[in-house]
Description:
Helix content is 16%, strand content 20%. The chain is α+β, with helices and mostly antiparallel strands and 142 residues long. The chain has one domain: HIT family, subunit A. The radius of gyration is 15 Å and the shape is globular. The mean pLDDT is 90.
Amino acid sequence: MATNNTDTSGDYLCTFCMIARGQDQEAQVLKKDQELVCFRDICPAAPHHYLVVPNQHIENCFSLHNGHVTLVEKMVEMGRTVLQDQGVADMTDIRIGFHQPPYTSISHLHLHVLAPASKIAGSVMFKFLPGTVSFVDVSAAV
């Protein structure tokens, strides 16, 4: 019987862990490496809305520490690369960041990558406003 969000093998049962392990066939994975996976958000807020998640289960941005700086930089870099791969030419009109708890929908660290930021749907714009309690913008991190 699973406890603490793990199965009998100790693997996390969260949706993003399953995507990272290639166990979710419906996820539209765009890029993957040994540490990260990038896929389309199932409820896009902009024409380009992707999520970058670490393969390792990290609860949320509050779980990050100094040892994760390189990981976050790689997440941002992968997000930017995927935007360019998908034909986004204006890299100044993007939004990249994390939702802070309690504004997270899944308890697995995930970086939102959106473009163009000027076309984020008005009905959800508040969820992606830099400098608010819900969203930490890291667009300029890398």
